[in-house]
Specification:
Elements lengths: L13 E5 L2 E5 L8 E2 L21 E4 L3 H11 L4 H7 L4 H8 L7 H11 L4 E4 L8 H5 L20
Antiparallel strand pairs: 1-2, 1-3, 4-5
Helix pairs in contact: 2-3
């Protein structure tokens, strides 16, 4: 049994062009577009998954700016002196300390090494590489995500 791609009901029988997109819809939803011939149109919907990567992901520790600032001040270094020490601009150090800028992982590692601190952590990925959000957010009556799940159709 085909499922209506607009409202999710289980009686999809029409190929219908709705705003330039061919969809399989029920008789009720076919009024929103132009019914096409009975050609077999296969619509492929790609599932949104994170790209599989062997590279680790990192997140910044909350309050990383204060951690950098306190460690720099503990070493009695000005922003300018510290910037020279790590081969960065003073403005970059200021932006990092005020948390208006998140440095690259390489720069963060350089700061961590120079100040003997931790400001980034590696994120552990699930064994199936899917985010927990994508598993739970979209569930429709027919356990497939349809356009009808996103919009509310006004019925007369």
């Amino acid at each position: 049994m085909a499922i209506c791609e607009l409202c999710g009901s289980g009686n999809s029988v029409y190929d219908c062009e709705i705003e330039g997109t061919v969809m399989r819809v029920c008789s009720e939803c076919s009024k929103f577009g132009k019914v096409r011939g009975s050609s077999n149109v296969k619509i492929v919907v790609q599932e949104h998954k994170r790209p599989v990567s062997n590279e680790p992901e990192f997140v910044f520790i909350q309050g990383y700016g204060n951690i950098v600032k306190n460690a720099r001040e503990k070493l009695k270094l000005t922003q300018e002196d510290f910037a020279k020490k790590v081969s960065e601009h003073k403005s970059v150090i200021h932006q990092i300390e005020s948390e208006h800028f998140k440095p690259s992982v390489d720069t963060a590692r350089k700061l961590e090494k120079a100040l003997h601190i931790r400001i980034i952590e590696e994120v552990k990925q699930d064994s199936d590489n899917n985010s927990n959000i994508s598993k739970n957010v979209f569930k429709s009556k027919a356990s497939e995500f349809t356009l009808g799940d996103m919009i509310k159709v006004k019925k007369k």
